[in-house]
Design a protein that fits this description.
Blueprint lengths: L2 E6 L4 H12 L3 E7 L13 E4 L3 H13 L4 E3 L6 H13 L6 E3 L5 H13 L5 E8 L9 H13 L18 E3 L2 E7 L5 E9 L2 E9 L6 H10 L6 E3 L1 H5 L3 H18 L1
Parallel strand pairs: 1-2, 1-3, 3-4, 4-5, 5-11, 6-8
Antiparallel strand pairs: 6-9, 7-8, 9-10
Helix pairs in contact: 4-5, 4-8
Length: 263
């Protein structure tokens, strides 16, 4: 079956990449390429919408798609846990609402880096995130950093919040789920993230660098192909990759508890 795709944000870098991927895939067909001048009803008739716009436009696009019963893949940053929860409540309360897949980062490597950080989080009390993007990125912290911090916070539910001394000082970064996040926006970069975890006498750094937009291709295709059959709200590419983060974290916490008991 051919999947008809509407791309919102088609004139941007990610939008152009998505258009080329749809054109090159035998099972995908371009239904509509939407720019800032397009009418949202151009999405009607699509099997899935890909939103790669900007934070100011994304909310309206998601609202329209879900209300029209069209599954949507959201690759736009700026969606916090609270805003996603609002969408989840709407979708849950309307049987005809379209599914929503929030994908902060389409890179498989980045997704694995976030999963590794969540897995390690219960073992370290000092954790901070440094993310860096090109100067043209309009939002900060990045959606990837926000998602990473939120998963770290969830993973540390039993261990308690991370140590973040002097968090009242602006230079200490923005607290997201209790984790300090520092954002760089500068020329010469595409995207990278470092999660630094500190313990007694050691640090662990989990780093990922995006060297080319081609790193997003596999994730975009995976999300577009899964969205038509999706239900409800899905957050993160990890769910599509089968990364069972809660189970992995629970295993780590159980091991930590066992180690403490053994002492």
């Amino acid at each position: 079956m051919t999947i008809r795709v509407a791309v919102a944000g088609a004139t941007g870098k990610m939008g152009k990449l998505a258009l080329s991927l749809v054109e090159g895939a035998d099972d995908l067909e371009l239904h509509a390429a939407l720019s800032s001048k397009s009418e949202l009803d151009e999405m009607l008739g699509a099997d899935v919408v890909l939103d790669v716009t900007h934070p100011a436009a994304s909310a309206g696009i998601v609202e329209f798609a879900t209300g029209a019963g069209i599954p949507i893949v959201v690759g736009t940053s700026g969606w916090s846990a609270d805003r996603i929860a609002e969408i989840e409540r709407f979708v849950r309360g309307h049987d005809e609402a379209g599914a929503v897949l929030f994908i902060p980062n389409f890179s498989i490597g980045s997704t694995l880096g976030t999963a590794f950080a969540a897995l390690a989080a219960p073992w370290f009390d000092s954790i901070e995130i440094v993310e860096a993007h090109h100067a043209g990125k309009v939002d900060s912290p990045s959606g990837t950093a926000v998602r990473t911090a939120e998963l770290i916070g969830e993973a540390r539910a039993a261990a308690g919040p991370v140590e973040a001394p002097h968090a009242d000082q602006r230079a200490r970064g923005q607290l997201v789920s209790g984790v300090p996040v520092h954002s760089l926006r500068m020329s010469g970069l595409l995207a990278e993230q470092r999660v630094v975890l500190g313990g007694d006498g050691e640090t662990l750094t989990i780093a990922h660098s995006t060297l080319s937009p081609s790193s997003y291709e596999a994730g975009i295709l995976l999300a577009l192909r899964r969205a038509p059959e999706a239900t409800g709200v899905t957050v993160g590419l990890g769910a599509l990759l089968g990364l069972e983060l809660p189970a992995a974290v629970a295993t780590a916490e159980t091991a930590a508890s066992a180690a403490t008991s053994a002492e």
